[in-house]
């Protein structure tokens, strides 16, 4: 197995993994391959996207896992050793490939990539109920950030805050 930034040769296999990821987060819901392909090409891999996609690839060429991450600059840290960090959006390994090193390989690859690009910190969220994931992250030496909480505003909440009614921004 090896890890690489996703290439066109891996798109079809990555689409399979993204369909599985969709079902994982949406209780078995099925996403069409065409919708996933369009999202991958038009959004995730768009030139304007700040997100990078690293994939763990098996000896057969199939994508076994994915790390989606961005490199961001701090607004409050100016020291060269602290001003840039890596934000992991998603780490996902196919259910059939878990506990075979893909997650660790992805995290190690991403850490090296981040380091080589001036990052000295990696941050990511994890569901509190994901005890297996938490144990995995702690096995890597990661520490839980105890003074941070995660918030979300979605759907009607975004519309209300934005002053949008019936799909139209109000003056």
Written account of the structure:
It is a single chain. The chain contains 5 helices and 7 strands; from the N terminus they run E-H-H-E-E-E-H-E-H-H-E-E. With 171 residues, the chain is α+β, with helices and mostly antiparallel strands. It has one domain: Aminopeptidase. The strands form 2 sheets. Strands 1-2-3-4-5 form a 5-stranded mixed β-sheet, sandwiched between helices. Helix 1 (11-25) packs across helix 2 (33-44).
Count of folded domains: 1
Strand content: 15-25%
Order of helices and strands: EHHEEEHEHHEE
In the CATH hierarchy, what is the superfamily? Gcn5-related N-acetyltransferase (GNAT)
Concise description?
Helices cover 34% and strands 22% of the residues. With 171 residues, it is of the alpha+beta class. Helix 1 (11-25) packs across helix 2.
Note the topology:
Elements (H helix, E strand, L loop, with lengths): L1 E4 L5 H15 L7 H12 L7 E6 L5 E11 L10 E10 L8 H15 L5 E2 L7 H9 L16 H7 L1 E2 L2 E2 L2
Parallel strand pairs: 4-5
Antiparallel strand pairs: 1-2, 2-3, 3-4, 6-7
Helix pairs in contact: 1-2
């Amino acid at each position: 197995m090896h890890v690489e930034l996703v290439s066109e040769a891996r798109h079809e296999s990555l689409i399979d993994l993204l369909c599985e990821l969709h079902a994982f987060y949406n209780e078995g819901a099925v996403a069409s391959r065409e919708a996933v392909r369009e999202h991958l090409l038009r959004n995730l891999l768009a030139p304007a996207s700040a997100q990078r996609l690293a994939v763990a690839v098996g000896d057969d060429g199939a994508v076994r896992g994915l790390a989606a991450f961005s490199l961001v600059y701090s607004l409050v840290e100016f020291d060269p050793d602290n001003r840039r960090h890596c934000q992991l959006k998603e780490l996902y390994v196919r259910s059939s490939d878990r506990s075979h090193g893909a997650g660790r390989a992805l995290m190690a690859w991403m850490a090296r990539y981040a380091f080589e690009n001036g990052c000295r910190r990696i941050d990511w969220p994890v569901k509190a109920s994901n005890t297996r994931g938490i144990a995995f992250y702690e096995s890597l030496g990661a520490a839980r950030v105890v003074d941070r909480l995660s918030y979300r505003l979605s759907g009607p909440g975004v519309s209300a805050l934005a002053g949008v009614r019936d799909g139209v921004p109000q003056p």
